[in-house]
Amino acid sequence: MSAQEVNVAIIGGGLMGREIAAALQRWPALVDHPPRPRLTAVCDIVPAAMDWFDQIDTVTTKTTDYRDLLADPSIDVVYVAVRHDLHQVIYSDVVRAGKDLLAEKPFGIDGPAARAVLQAMADHPESFVRCSSEMPFYPGAQLAIAAVRAGGLGRIIEARSAFLHSSDLDADKPINWKRQVATCGEAGVMNDLGMHAWHVPLRLGWQPRQVYAVLQDIVPQRPGPDGALVRCDTWDNAVVHAWVGGDDDGFPLAVETKRLAPGEKNTWVFEVRGTEGGVRFSTKNAGALEVFRVVDVPGVGREQVWQTLDVGSQSSWPTVTGGIFETGFSDAILQMWAVFLAERAGALGDRFGAATPQEAAATHEIYAAALRSHAEGRRIAL
Ligand SMILES: NC(=O)c1ccc[n+]([C@@H]2O[C@H](COP(=O)([O-])OP(=O)(O)OC[C@H]3O[C@@H](n4cnc5c(N)ncnc54)[C@H](O)[C@@H]3O)[C@@H](O)[C@H]2O)c1
Questions:
Q1: 63: helix, coil or strand?
Q2: How far apart are CA 316 and CA 340, in angstroms?
Q3: Atom 29 in ligand 1: which residue has the minimum CA distance?
């Protein structure tokens, strides 16, 4: 096997396990990417869940016990997409086995779980670990990040990062593991969607100093497996008002994560406004980046101008896709894997990398403060 070939195993063959398996089949779309991943193994405790993987002919191992994969020396990288209450044990076992790991968010069910995985990583520094978060790899998001980093916005007045979902609008939708504290976590919707909304702010250095949170439990019961109503005890919507930076030069950052956002589907919105300029990007209109500038308009004077930039297809890693073609969720997933495996191979360069375990752990500290803020009706310092 060439040093550039990377054998990948997936633990959890559900929604995300299949999404990633499909993304890896599109690898030839990446131009001159050093590693060549091959999906060779899958594990799910439900054997029928693995039938789907039969159509991928590189998959030669199927097992219901993930420890079989960890004992297999041919496997280099493990992607884990399981319930949040299973993250700590499985992620730690992957790291202890010396495998590299792309872990699904929220990287443990809570702060202590995330810290336990960080400890396993400290004990096994040979294992390269990142956390899944694909939204920043939309081309428009990359441009928005570049614009903020370039510093041309003047003094930042405010920022907003919102992940808006509508999967739970139907109150008759049956309960599942994502809607129960025991398997999703006390942070509820923040555990589900928070990494999507916090990755870019944290990478920009916008660690909140204090938070004030408003949480909603909109659908408190849902039909169980037999149709009888059972408690749906996770928070559905969360709005976290954070203060970033110093007293004099800081600004408010609003981070919204909502499972019941009427009129939305699966949308991440990122918006920053400063005294001289601003950017606004939404995955709902992924081909466009809105740019705001205060400019001198000849004959008119100093005025506020919004412009829309067509962003095309190119994101972090170049692809064979035509530059003017338009982009979507599956492209962002492929780009996240491209930067994950590039960084693992030491070839990331100055590109925006996948979310780090430290960033993921920091989100749990924010969620814990948000839970306290809502319970006590006051702002909490971090
Ligand atoms: N990045 C994203 O955009 C995104 C989107 C959805 C979900 N997620 C995350 O992905 C993870 C999984 O979510 P999902 O929607 O794919 O869930 P899912 O319920 O669709 O799939 C989970 C799979 O794990 C299997 N499983 C359970 N216990 C197992 C074990 N011990 N060993 C092996 N397999 C086991 C289940 O049988 C199921 O097939 C969660 O952490 C979730 O937050 C990420």
A1: strand
A2: 11
A3: 45
Nearest to 339, CA basis, from 315, 363, 311: 315
Q: From ligand 1's centre to the CA of 86, what distance in Å?
A: 10
CA atoms within 13 A on the CB side of 99: 30
CATH 3.40.50.720 in the chain is located at 5-131
CA 178 – ligand 1 centroid, Å: 10
* Ligand 1 nearest-atom number relative to CA 133: 1
291-318 residue pLDDT tens: 999 999 999 999 999 999 999 999 999 9
Query: CA distances (Å), 167 to each of 138, 232, 233, in order?
Result: 22, 14, 16
Give the integer Cα–Cα distance in Å for 77 and 101: 6
Tokens coding 228 = 């009888």
Q: Identify which of 83, 178, 330, 340 to mutate to test ligand 1's pocket (most ligand atoms within 8 A of the CB).
A: 83
Name beta bridge partners: 267: 164
Ligand 1 site, CB within 6 A = 11-17, 43-46, 49, 66, 81-84, 86, 104-105, 132, 134, 192
Report domain 5-131's class: alpha beta
Task: From the options 3.40.50.720, 1.10.287.130, 3.40.50.10320, 3.30.360.10, give the CATH code of 135-381.
Answer: 3.30.360.10
Q: What is the radius of gyration, based on Cα positions, of the chain? A: 21
H helical segments located in the chain: 15-24, 66-70, 87-96, 111-123, 139-150, 181-184, 189-203, 329-344, 357-376
Question: Average per-residue pLDDT in the chain?
Answer: 97
- What is d(CA 39, CA 282) in angstroms, rounded to the nearest whole number? 32
Residue 198 CA to ligand 1 centre (angstroms) = 21
- How much distance in Å is there from the Cα of 46 to the middle of ligand 1? 12
Q: What are the residues facing 131 on neighbouring strands?
A: 103, 355
Distance from the CA of 81 to the center of ligand 1, in angstroms?
Answer: 4
Q: What does the pLDDT look like over 197-237, one tens digit per residue?
A: 999 999 999 999 999 999 999 999 999 999 999 999 999 99
